[in-house]
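tl;dr need the bound structure. longer version: we got a ligand (NAI) that a collaborator sent over and nobodys looked at where it sits. i said id run it. heres the input, straight from their email, havent touched it
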Amino acid sequence: MALNPDAIGKKIGPFYKDYTWKDAVLYALGVGAGFADLEYCYEKDLKVIPSFGIVTIYDFMADLATVSNVNLAGVLHGEQELIFHHPIPPEGTLITEGAITHYYDKGAEKGALVVAEFETSHSNGDKLFTSIVTIFSRLDGGFGGENAPAKELTFPVRDPDYIVEAIPPEDQPLVFRLSGDVFQLHVDRGFAEMAGFEKPIMHGLCTHGYACRALIDTIVPGKPQMVRRVACRFKKPLYPGTPIKTVIWKIVEGQAMWRITNAETGEVVIDNGVFEYGDIPRDQIRFDGRVAVITGAGGGLGRVYALELAKRGAKVVVNDLGGARDGTGEGSKVPADEVVDEIKALGGEGVANYENVATVAGGKRLVEAALDTFGTVDILINNAGILRDKSFLKMEPQNWQAVLDVHLHGAYNVSHPAFAVMKEKGYGRILMTTSAAGLYGNFGQTNYAAAKMGLVGLMNSLKLEGENYDIKVNAIAPVAASRLTEDILPPEFLQNLKPELVAPMAVYLVSKQCPVTGNIYNVGMGCVNRSAVLTGRGTVVGDSANIPTAEQILAQWAEISCLKEAKAYHNLTEQVGDLMAALTRPAEDADGSVTGFTTVAEVFDAMPGAFIANVSAGVDVVFQFKIDGDQGGEWYSSVKDASCDVSAGIHQKPSCTLKMIDSDFLDLMNGKLPAMQAYTSGKLKIEGDIMKSQLIEKLFKFN
Ligand code: NAI
């Protein structure tokens, strides 16, 4: 028996669990609630303890065991994380589905970890919570997979802010099991003895429920709806009747760390506890389970990105060489280490990395470090930067080169190996850091501006290569107070340039929710706007038969330079398509109005007259047109025996069906949109016999 590799990513569920207030109360009683916290036990104004969410895992676990082929003889619940999106209502149906996301191999002697993530929504349509379960399987190790990333949290060395004592009664497992976990180990003395225990033990999730109550009572009393995340690792078994302590440290507003100890022995029973709280925003942007690599994150903007992503659940690789502002110097581990310490103090996960991204080998090792530590790369922020400002004639080759090496080549060096990982997994977010100096120009920064605009070119093409793999590549042009700007901008101005004002946009652009790719945004001082390369409509000044003169260019300069109706193209093909269309653009009347069809119906009225009978010998074809939009409708054109019949409506047996929206159809018919471009851009959809559709151009000639 071995873990089934095909199970990873395979959908498990959905499972439906109907529940009433009685189930919520039964759970509350199972985790020690009573008259002291009646709001969990009385159907009048009942509040549901958020950890009630674990009742959904039992169905899921059974399927998870089957599909993964895990050896049930050695299975323990290793870790549990619940991330809340909406409070759990007192009754309804819970709908749960998910998948196994990872197997980790701790070695033949030590076992394996099976990690699964699933989402639960309510019959009212709300997404309630995400549950991440880690199963520790003692007997499945040694299959040659990667080891689990280390994720020990650093607890504060000071005294805790709260200690909540409790003694779960001897009979507690008998009540808790009624919420779903009916395993004999928690009820049957003979079975427990066989498993090496004196008597039945507490359910780990029951002790977890005690912790959840204690955390709410101390940190958000009376407001279970404010719980946003509860995560922990199960460490030691506990006998019912043993006194326990929930030990809690408030870290920052919104986050606490906790553990449960056996009050008799001092042993830690549940460890690595994180508790997050606050108003539950709808559509919260989270990064749980995601791995982010941020270059140059030892200070300035990168540090703030790292902290924000870690707070939102990402595992962060904090890269920084620790050199001087101009990139010189020995380098230092201190900046990256300090940011990782800050992340850990917030209860997050991070690892420091000191590679120089300006080298190919450095970029490769940085991505390898992410894989070794956290198993993957989902997010890359190319942020590392240096400055060597000089006016152009003083710009020696080494100052030109050094700046290009860090900014432009650095982004290539890290993106290249990271993109390979993202393409393989079918998901990725890459953020380039460009600059207003590159987008618009800045005196004394030719090297920097060239590098920063080079990053836009890199983004433009990489976005296309990532499109089929859910890899989005965007760019940010920040303005923020940092050591790069501290002596360039006046101090009173710097006060308004907190890097924290830039981070939300960076975080959004690397989130799953990010809807765009290939876009550039200016961000700073609380303002965000989009910047783009725009192309004007221009004018046709000649063709291969009429080569224009420089004087003709001069004569048409206003139209050539005009940016009215300018467009941002998504790729080169779109731009070339417009160029071709411009060459076939119909003549404009003196007053600027375009001659040609103005309504869709006119096209079909003109179609019989446009038919060229003498090229239609032997042709038997029906073209069905389905045109959307205000002017839309259905028409078909039937060509047979050298005659053409055009009618409104649907034909029973068309050879092919052409679908377009009215405006595109008019552009096509007026020569503004070449047919091939319409087809490749998806503006023209053809169903049925595509080859026959090509006869249209041969059979009809519109004037
Ligand atoms: P910063 O100097 O605080 O951060 C840059 C970090 O990159 C430093 O910690 C540095 O040690 C690190 N770094 C430099 N070379 C490296 C290398 N070869 N390998 C690894 N790490 C390296 O500056 P700031 O302002 O936070 O800059 C971040 C990014 O934002 C840079 O790309 C910068 O060009 C860009 N930017 C910043 C603006 C601002 O107003 N602060 C304006 C426009 C762009």
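gonna send this back to them w/ a short note. The chain has three domains: 5-142+152-277, 291-531, 600-699.
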